[in-house]
Amino acid sequence: MSRTKLVAGNWKMHGSLAVNLSLLTAVGAGVADVRGQTAVCVPYPYLAQARSLLAGSPVAWGAQDVSEHVQGAYTGEVSGAMLSDFGCRYVIVGHSERRSCYGDTDAVVAAKFAAALKAGLTPILCVGETLAEREANVTAQVVTRQLEAVLRGSGVGSLARAVIAYEPVWAIGTGKTASPAQAQAVHALIRARIARDDDALAGGVRILYGGSVKGSNAKELFGQPDIDGGLIGGASLVAEDFLAICAAT
Ligand code: PEP
Questions:
Q1: Radius of gyration for the chain, computed over Cα atoms and rounded to the nearest angstrom
Q2: Ligand 1 atom closest to 172 (CA)
Q3: What CA–CA distance (Å, rounded) separates 230 from 194?
Q4: Rounded Cα–Cα distance for residues 146 and 110 (Å)
Q5: Is 8 in contact with 213 (CB distance < 8 Å)?
Q6: What confidence score (pLDDT) does residue 85 get?
Q7: Catalytic residue numbers?
Q8: Of 77, 116, 129, 152, which has the fewest Cβ atoms less than 10 A away?
Q9: What pLDDT, on the 0 to 100 scale, is given for residue 100?
Q10: How far apart are the first and last CA of the chain?
């Protein structure tokens, strides 16, 4: 099945009104010839800026996290309905930095995934193993466990309205990229696990790779049969670098 590639930027906690203005203007102008889809996931305070600067542009935009709760006394949290009300399309859930720094367990990530879907957002579900887990040869078990929490919570059919990102933790922000073969192996494993529950649906699910993707390695990574684009951290902050990755779709 042919799947449209997607390159999504994860700005993390970076940016300012002035810096974003030039970045978004350059990205918006530079994607005209890009074959795949593009998106940026920005810090909450800059959603309004992304919405206004990207209006009418093919670049979609969204947030980096969402509350698992619908509403209530959850100081500092932002609900799916708020993001959706605002016009966001995407939201990242389960990024490894949320899992490791903020205690987002598999169950919390599954609840956030469900909350995002319920609000009509497209969750980008991140899964991936740490270096210790890879060295202990438990990559498959870890990634399967993370995925199965979502399958249990929302059902396999929910993946038709979601995107998965395989992000080996040891490759995020480290400059170390998984080799195309290493990434492809895990992507194939994720797709096979989905196929076990729904073969037809598995062929249509987009699985992005994330972890030190650059213009110089994007083409080879995106050329793998089960890699459908990338989730991009550091390189999404520099228009030229991000556009070079987008061009590799
Ligand atoms: C990320 O944070 O999702 C990521 C992939 O970061 P980087 O591209 O900087 O490794």
A1: 17
A2: 10
A3: 19
A4: 9
A5: no
A6: 97
A7: 95, 167
A8: 152
A9: 97
A10: 16
Give the C-alpha separation, 192 to 194, whole Å.
5
Q: Which pLDDT score is estimated for 3? A: 97
Q: How would you classify the pairing of strands 206-210 and 163-166?
A: parallel
Position 1 pLDDT exceeds 80: no
At 33 the pLDDT is 87
The number of CA neighbours under 13 Å toward the Cβ of 175 is 0
pLDDT digits 0-9 by tens, 95-131? 999 999 999 999 999 999 999 999 999 999 999 999 9
pLDDT number for residue 72: 98
**Probe ligand 1: pick from 10, 12, 41, 92, max atoms within 8 Å of CB?**
10
Claim: this prediction has a pTM higher than 0.90: yes
Cα 220 → chain centroid: 19
Separation of 112 CA from ligand 1 center, angstroms?
20
pLDDT, averaged across the chain: 97
pLDDT at residue 5, as a whole number: 98
- As a whole-number percent, the residues of the chain with pLDDT over 70 amount to 100
Tokens 């889809």, residue located: 37
- Whether the CA torsion 16, 17, 23, 24 is positive or negative: it is positive
